[in-house]
């Protein structure tokens, strides 16, 4: 069991980040901490995709088919998961920026970032 965990440490790290991210989103009352939790959750998903695309075999190479070999002869890694992760990182950065802008606007309007206080203020309006 220990050998399996040691050889698949990226999956262990992914589950740890996933758990911390979900806990921060659920348990935290502060909106900034919730946004940090969402970012940790996203990072865990990115790590999962990259770990799944990793080929642990002798002779595996970059996804470039050489001119001297047959296309099915050489074992190459699929570039699709890396492309998806790069796109998701860009989308994640944009969503984080929009989330921070909304948090700044909420703080300037209500003077707090605590979710329970915001619910009380909104109920009074």
UniProtKB/TrEMBL annotation:
InterPro entries assigned: CPA3_antiporter_subunitC, NUOK/Mnh_C1-like
Chief location: membrane
Highest taxon above the source species: Archaea
Signal peptide boundaries: none
Alphabetic keyword roster: Membrane, Transmembrane, Transmembrane helix, Ubiquinone
Transmembrane segments: 6-26, 38-55, 83-104
Alphabetical list of Gene3D superfamilies matching this protein: 1.10.287.3510
Intracellular or extracellular location(s): Membrane
GO cellular component, one term: membrane
Pfam families named among the record's database cross-references: Oxidored_q2
Membrane topology: Multi-pass membrane protein
NCBIfam families assigned: PRK07375.1-6, PRK07375.2-3
Name the UniProt record assigns to this protein: NADH-ubiquinone oxidoreductase chain 4L
């Amino acid at each position: 069991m220990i050998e399996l965990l040691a050889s698949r440490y990226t999956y262990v790290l992914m589950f740890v980040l996933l758990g911390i991210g979900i806990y921060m989103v659920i348990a935290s009352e502060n909106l900034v901490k919730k946004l940090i939790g969402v970012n940790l959750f996203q990072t865990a998903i990115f790590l999962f995709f990259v770990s799944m695309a990793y080929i642990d075999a002798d002779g595996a190479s970059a996804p470039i088919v050489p001119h001297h070999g047959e296309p099915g002869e050489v074992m190459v890694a699929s570039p699709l998961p890396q492309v998806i992760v790069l796109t998701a990182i860009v989308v994640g950065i944009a969503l984080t920026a929009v989330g921070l802008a909304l948090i700044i606007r909420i703080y300037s309007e209500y003077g707090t970032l605590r979710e329970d206080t915001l619910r009380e203020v909104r109920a009074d309006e």
